[in-house]
């Protein structure tokens, strides 16, 4: 994950770190701060699907664009690309956006995406050679083969980021648009107690109470590098 976003142009002063718990302060203390984004990785369950459909039902499709948006949201149209979409949501929003190298592939992608509506942004990703190269390079360095578009994958990625207006946003390319989960304090980062309650803990609580009592998930934080 770290090599992919750094190859695209994110500053090497930021890196992804494993988050081993949502509740143990002694383990959360190992994560460098401030945390600019969280990526939640989880199996797609019937509980998640029901919640997604129920919440999205009354929501209109997101159509915003331009520099006035609080966050950049990418609709996922490429099958099995939720990991890449999640990484882009984490790196292109909040404090991380200010740490993208000028004239890099990522900086150019952000500049090109800002004036576009969601369908046009999706087409931008579909046709981006830099995204394709970064994905192929990261997959080549890993221990497993990247899934093809035809493979059936039951894992999904959701990003949580904090906007300049101190709102916590849930960014998921399968939804109708970005979801504002609530107001944070100016001192809160995305791993603060308030942000966890509004975001990742809210998600895991719903899954634990669902029909399958699903508790499998992974969490990584985009935060200062320890190198």
State the main characteristics.
227 residues; alpha+beta; six-stranded antiparallel β-sheet; 6 strands; 36% helix
User: Helicity, in percent?
Assistant: 25-40%
SSE sequence, one letter per element: HEHEHHHHHHEEEHHE
Low-confidence stretches: 143-152
Q: Give the CA-based shape.
A: globular
Count of separate DSSP helical elements: 10
Number of strands: 6
For the sheet with most strands, the description reads:
6 strands, antiparallel
- Strand-pairing-aware structural class: alpha+beta
Strand percentage lies at 15-25%
How would you write the strand order of the largest sheet?
Answer: 1-6-2-3-4-5
Separation of termini?
16 Å
Q: For the residues shown, what is the average pLDDT?
A: 90
Gyration radius, in Å: 17 Å
What does this structure look like?
This protein is an alpha+beta fold and 227 residues long. The chain has ten helices and six strands. It has helices at residues 2-8, 25-28, 46-56, 82-91, 94-97, 105-113, 118-126, 129-141, 193-198, 200-208; strands spanning 14-18, 37-43, 155-162, 167-171, 179-183, 218-224. It has a six-stranded antiparallel β-sheet. Strand 3 (155-162) and strand 4 (167-171) form a beta hairpin. The two termini are 16 Å apart. The model is unreliable at 143-152 (pLDDT under 50).
